[in-house]
Structure formats: C-alpha cells, structure tokens
Amino acid sequence: MSSSSVKNFARHARYVMTENPVTALAALLFLLIVIAAVAGPALVPYDPMATNDTRALQPPSWDHWFGTDHLGRDVFSRVVVATRLDLMISLAAVAMAFVIGSAMGAVAGYFGGWADRITGRLLDTIMAFPLFVLAMGVVAAAGNTIENIVYATAIINLPFYARMARAEVNIRRNAGFVQAARLSGNGDWRILAQHIFPNTLPPMMVQISLNMGWAILNAAGLSFIGLGVRPPTPEWGIMVAEGANFIVSGEWWLAFFPGVALMLAVFTFNLLGDGLRDLVDPQRRT
Amino acid sequence: MSIPLLDIKALTVEFGTRRGVVDAVRQVSVTVAKGETVGIVGESGSGKSVTSYAVMRILDRAGRIAGGSIVFGGINVGKADERTMRDLRGREMSMIFQNPRAALNPIRSVGRQIEDVLIEHSLATRADAREKAIDVLKAVRINDPESRYHAYPFELSGGMCQRVVIAIALACRPQLLIADEPTTGLDVTTQKAVMDLIRELTAERNMSTLLITHDLGLAAAYCDRIVVMEKGRVVEEADTATLFANPRHPYTRRLLQATPRLDSKVADLLPEEDSRRRTPSTRPPGETLLQVQDLVKVFPGKDKGDEYRAVDGLSFEVRSGESLGLVGESGCGKSTTSSMIMRLLDPTSGHILFNGEDIGAVPGKRFAGHSARASLQMVFQDPTDSLNPRWSARRSISDPLMRLASVGGSALRAKVEAVAEMVGLPDHLLDRFPHQLSGGQKARVGIARAIALEPKLLILDEPTAALDVSVQAVVLNLLVELRERLGMSYLFISHDLNVVRLLCERVLVMKAGRIVEQGSAEHLLDRPEHPYTRELLAAIPHPPSSPPRVSSESEDSVIAARWP
Fold it and tell me: What are the structural domain ranges in chain B?
C-alpha cells in the first residue's frame, strides 16, 4: 500500500459518505459506539458498579442523565460501559462465523461433490433449529460463560456466511479470470484463496454488518434470559431484564435507555452495510 | 418532401455521474421517413443506443433529454406524458434488444408473452389471443408455431429467441421498429436469417426501421441511409451507396477501412501512415509443434442414451510459427477443443501431442505444475470477464510470471513493463483496475498476460469479438507483430471466417464436432467445396470490396453493398 492508494481510499471513503447521507449517519453512530467501547470507562461520570442506597431509583436528572437503578448505580455510566462487552461478544462471534463459515462455503462451492453435500447437510441441520433456542442449548450445555455465548452466537450465524460464500464462489468458478489464473500456473487452492474469494467480499460485507446487529441482539437476548453474562456486570441485555421489573411501577428509565442503546447499535450496523460494500468494492472506485 | 415519421432535431442527452454531468448525445438530428430503413453506425460510446433509448423514452434515471426535440408521428416524445408513451411503446414503435434471451421472461411461455402484448394494447381478447399469437409466430417464420407457443425461452436457440422477440415487437404492427444490435452474439448464418426476416417483414408492412449497429457491413447490406456517430455526435449522414462510394468525414473513412473486406489484408485495416501496420511474413512453418489425434469429448446426459459428443474424432496439427484458424458456429465444439488443448478440460479419448509428449494424458487438475504449462497460453474471448476485477493490470500480468517463471522484485517490474510496452499499453495504465480500462486496453492486458511467458502456442479464442472494429484492426496487427517477434504459433478460434483469414495461412472449418473442410485460407475463400463453408461465407455481410479512398464509384459497388 503506497501513500497514493491510501489517499485514493480516503477520497473514495469521502465520496461514499457524501453520496449517501444515510451511510454518513451510520458512520457517525458507529464512531460513537467505537468511542464508547474503547474509552467508555474513562469517560463516564460514575463508577458503573458503585451502589448508593440513598440515590436508588432516581429519574433522569442533570446529575444522572439516565437516572439511577434500584441499587443507586448510574444508568448512563452502565449503558456506556456495557458497549465494550456487547461489541466484543458480537465482534468475536461474527468474526468466527465469517472465517469458518465462508471457508466452509468457499470450499463447498469451488470443489462441489462430496464437500458440497456434507457442508450442505450440516448447514441444513443447524438451520433446522430455531436459532435462538439452539444458542440457548449450546450455552446451557457448554456452561454459562462469556466464551460460550460467543461460540453459540458464532454457530447460529455460520450458515449465513457459508451459504453466501458457496453461492458467490460457485458463480465465479468458471469465470474467464479463473481459467486465466489456471493457465498462469495457479493450483486450485491458490485460485480459490487469491482469485475467487476476494471477489466475494463486497456482498459478504453487507452480511457481516447486518449480522453484527443481529449478534448484539442475540448476545443481549441470551443475557436477558439469564444465560451468559451475569449481574452485576453492566450489559444491555441484563439491564433490560432487570429494568423490566420496574416498568410496572413507573421507573421506565432502567430498561428504556439500555434498550435504546441496543436499538441504536443494531440500527447502526444495519445501515452501515451498504456503505461498507461500496467501500470494499473496487468497481465503485473510479 | 413529406413529413418524416420520426424527426429528431438537435437532441442532447445528459447523464448525471460522479464526475458531474456528461453529454452522451450532443446535437443529434436524424429523420426516418415512412418505409425507410436508417442505420445508426458507431463504435461503443458513440451514443447510438442512448439516442434510441431517448426515442422510446426509456433512458435510465441518471439520463435526461437536455435539449432538442423528438417528434414521432406528430407527437412530441420529449414532452408527452407517461400514459401517451405507454400507448406509443409497443403499439406505434417497438424495439428489439441485443440479447434476445435476456429480453424474454424466462418463466413464461413465449406464446403467453406475445398474448400479453396483444392484450395490453387491446388488439386481442382473452378468447382469440391464442389464435392471434400463433399467427404472429407464423409471421416470423417459426416452424410448427402451435407447439412453439408452449415453449419456454430456454428451450429455444438464440436465433429462435430473437425471432420471438421480433414477433413480440411486431405483434401490434408498429410503424417504427428500433433494432439495437439485433444480431450481436448470433452466428453469421443466424444473423442473415434474422436480418432477412426483419427486412421482409418491414417491407411487407411498409414499416420504418432504425437499425443500430457497430457493423458497417451489416448496415451496408440492409439500410437505405446511414448515419455515422462518433462520441455523441453525428459526423456523417448519407445514402448507403454514397457513403461507401464517397465517405467525407475522416472518421467514416477510418471506420470503413477498419472493417474487413473480402480482399483486404491485415495491414489494410489501418491507415497507410499508421506505424502499427504489419504484414505477415511468408516464412514457411517449422516442424510440428502440436498434434491432435482422434480427439473426442463426450458430455454425459441425463440418461445413457443422450450423451453429447461435443468433439467427435478431431485430428489436426500446428507447426511452429504457423497460424491455424479454427472456424465454426456456436456449439460446433471449437471452444471445447481449445479448452482441451489448454488442459483446462480432460478429453474423453484421443491424444494431444505437444512437442512429441502426450499432454492429453496428464489430468488437467495437475497440469498447473507441468513443464509445458508456460508454453501453452491463451487469450480469452471476453476481455472483461477474463481479468480479475480486484486486480490491477500490473498484478494480472505479473501473475503468470510469478507462478511459472519465479520472477520477483525489480526483475518482475521490469519484465511486466517490457511486455506492456510490447502490446502498446502505456505505463500509467498498469495500476488501473479492469473497470477503469477501455475494451481495447483490457484486450491488451489479456494479450500481455498470455505472452508474458513467451509461450510456444497461443490460442486466440475470438480475441476481437468483443471489440470495436477500429480496435480490432489495431489488435490484429499487434498479433501479427507479436508472432514475428516471439516466434509463436497461433490457433485462432472464431466464428468469423473473414477475420480468421487475415491472420491464418491454414483454416479448419468445424461443424458438430468434426472438421468438414480444411485448406489454405485463400483456397477456402475462393473455392469453398463443402456446402457448409459456402453457407458461412455467404452469410457474412461485407461492405463493398473496393477501397473507400477511390471516389469514382459505379453502380456495381452499390449492388455489391447489398449481398456479395
């Protein structure tokens, strides 16, 4: 990568942002989420774990923007600090699902035959379960830890990548440039890894982005039903679960703000997809 | 003069793009009288298709008519409301598109699709639609229309699909037919059949036709008047006879010259002062380089009985330094043959001897590491499809050098630049991606990649089929030059006898997996023996064979401009 190609990329990124304001909005929100994840603990006004009986269940005010919960902890601080954990879980899960899933799908799509049949049936088996129930089962069976939430989320996301990679690789298997690569002395694996696979990335990016939102929701969902992350760790799903008990008595802010954070995160990743695709597709770079 | 049916005056069409507004068509004026056939000829990017889309008002969202007027039968198309346009389209003017298969709905039977048009324009009722649709199919000379009525597009050949598209276009007896490259991608014999059909039908019904094509020969054979477009402007407009007898604009002259005629040599395609002109040497070929013996490829069908013999007992040889042409129409097995020789496909039986070694016996999967890999290279038909869209030109050309010659670092850089220079690709284009290059530039990248390893045998699979004629002229001359410089042998595969003979001394004519005729190029052209060869030759539309520079023309060339 020379400096000119970096400059080109920056110019292209600027174009993608200005052409589609929704992408710019998504990028802004994404930046906010990243800042919260990286520097969250240093930025927040209160210790997210510090309880204070005298200030329990206070509505939003200047001192506590998002109010306080039943133990007197500052909801704003907890919502911001929780970003890192939620983002880490979903990022790890999506990365794992993408790497394993797309590798499986690419091999199945390129070689066909038995490789295709075996992966195909395996994916069908995964897809046959209600996915959230499968994730619950995995966590329940493997043990109630954060790692297991990551694995469970990765497993239920895997079929999407595998199927997509299979289809995208399959349509390019006999493309002219693949034949040309063969004439240039490339073996099957090199053709797959260097020629075909990179060309499947643009549509995969959309999938990754959509999946990120879904993975966040899934991790929060598992925590909501009491699997995975345990209190008092700040996490959006648990906070919504805890706060739900107080909604009937009028203390809406306990569940509302973590819920909004969750929604914004999912919303951001869903919007980001198209922009990401435009960014990694060289055909859009003129 | 009476009022023309279609009157385009000073039409300007703009497209909004990332780099600002671009004029695709500037100040174009064309008229089409009742019963007249007008050809718009131009190369890619000349704005010929955009003009026709503007007439139908089917420009895509980014495009808009920025100036001028289009009047069709007294209606101002530019200002008409969408309802009027819907009535006009299909009923008063229709269009035939380039790719007939893409223009048809794949999940509806063709009869139904014709009925849809008839019912939409209230020319048939549910009760008699079927009968009328069959009449329409009969009109486009489709055999057994009753059973074809139920056929789906995938069950029909390309030529048959185009007939159905014509049937749909003509179903409502429009006054104007716009044919946008109606025969690109069809075989020459099919092209002739389709074009003859269009001519007959339009004459029968006294319709006007606007034929949009890049092929001067085709326009010469079918049009009363020709409009030549370049870069969005009309550069010349004349009667067909006058245009060929006395082309005034330099661009028209260049285009005429680049179009291969019956008697032209490869150097004749470029202007005399062009330094890229080359004449093939008449050196006798050396010893045998490639020998193909009884080559057979059978593709298995669903049952044992319906297996398909794509290549059926083919034998021929290529000597070193020789160019052999392999000519045939789609489905004749020529591409299967080239894939087998290139070792991309394993033969069912037979031998491929390269320098005496039977490379056909080495499985294609393991051929990547074979010592003969570098000596056998290929230039593909579609320059866009054959380049990795994520790789720059430099990386594409480097790939074979890195894999097979183990060149790296600064030596690689130097070698790539040397090869690029050989094919006439400027340095600054090397870092571009395929979509940033023009068709001709992409073809050069493909050629550079193929010759980077200095192969002994180069297969050229219709290397100019996707290129404009002026680019084809340059590429063909380049190929002649490279053969001399690198001492390669060519196996030139094409459906176009006219192009093949420019480069090849010897030609094989293939049909249904077998060779039907072979011999020297001149012999085959002058005295074709097999009826199939004769049919192929007769189907190629030629511009008049006399050179366009001579201005005194007789009536003969006008007749010659029709059909040879």
Answer: 1-92+176-259, 103-173, 289-539
